[in-house]
Amino acid sequence: MNNTSAAEVDAARLLLDRLGVTVEDLTAAPAGVDVPTFDAYIARVSTAVTVGTVRVYGPYWNRVRDAWGQRRLDEATALEVKQLAEHTRNTVVVRRNARGGHHAAEHMIAALRCLYRHAVADGLISVRANPAIRVPKPRRRTNARRALLDSQLADINTIVCTTGNDPDLDSLLLRLHLETACRRGGALALRPCDLDHQQCLVRLREKGATDRWQPVSPTLLRALRHHSNQRGDTDQTGALLRYRNGRPLTARRYDHLWNRVGQHLPWVAAQQISTHWLRHTTLTWVERHFGYGVARAYAGHDDHTTHGSTTTYIRADLYEITTALAALTGEHHPLLAPAATTR
């Protein structure tokens, strides 16, 4: 809360008048700084952030360049940022899981905030001159995702295994996401060198530059190894998941997968079921049976996303995650004593 009194504000204004300084002088770019255009600065920032950041914000930065490319960073106003966000909301491409452009507007503001944070850090503009920070993001809507029922999972699995042009690939994807609760990005980033065959672990590299070893069942590890041997090449650092012709898998496979399942199961299409629902399903089961700490670790959430210091004391280790996996799959895991897998 701002406790500055009217008298203090008047005193500050009087001091500024005596110094010959205006409020605009305080918020303008430092003297002698050549403020770049949006075109030029977006190109620079794109080389300084992670690949994941470019993947998420790149489409929105392209929209910014189309609208303001030749303008300087310090020329955009908060009203213009809001107008661009609303334009993005109204012109978003309608997809299967579209929510009225709500997320598009949010991502546009986030993309601009990212851009302006770098501009402030570079001394190109002052903090107070950042127009994106003065535009609130749209309030997030309640997440509609929930854990799927066992019967629903069985129906989905039947369609995945019996339809499509590559049931083996789709079945492998389904099991990978159900066992590890990984995101699509984590699956697509898997490499042959990310398989630890002795300890039945896979290395997941996901958003936020997170990197962790996740236990998997011996059955899944064998399936991943077989898939890699059949469709991969000698490059251990290349993509593990591939189409029959050897091309690396892309996110489009997931879109085709769920569109196909939705054609056979109308409730999947109606509720816009996606791969992320599998993550919800697994993590809900882990939380109900093994508690919040284990579910948090199973999800790969790091300490920077905590909502209180208590999470420091309930942090689960790899063996607790493995115990939950063994109970989930009903398979013994080499990291555990035999008794740990009994239900």
What does this structure look like?
The structure is a single chain. With 343 residues, the protein is mainly alpha-helical. It has two domains: 13-134, DNA polymerase, domain 1 (Orthogonal Bundle), CATH 1.10.150.130; 150-341, hpI Integrase, Chain A (Orthogonal Bundle). The chain has helices at residues 6-19, 23-27, 38-46, 51-68, 78-90, 102-121, 150-162, 167-180, 184-188, 218-231, 252-264, 266-270, 275-290, 292-299, 318-329, and strands spanning 195-196, 201-206, 210-215. A hairpin with a 4-residue loop joins strand 1 (195-196) and strand 2 (201-206). Helix 4 (51-68) crosses helix 6 (102-121) and helix 13 runs antiparallel to helix 14. The protein starts with 5 loop residues before the first helix and ends in a 14-residue tail after the last helix. The relative contact order is 0.09.
Output the keywords.
hpI Integrase, Chain A; 2 domains; mainly alpha; DNA polymerase, domain 1; 343 residues
How would you concisely characterize the structure shown here?
With 343 residues, the protein is mostly helical. 52% of the residues lie in helices and 4% in strands.
Question: What is the strand and helix layout of this fold?
Answer:
Elements: H1 6-19, H2 23-27, H3 38-46, H4 51-68, H5 78-90, H6 102-121, H7 150-162, H8 167-180, H9 184-188, E1 195-196, E2 201-206, E3 210-215, H10 218-231, H11 252-264, H12 266-270, H13 275-290, H14 292-299, H15 318-329
Antiparallel strand pairs: 1-2, 2-3
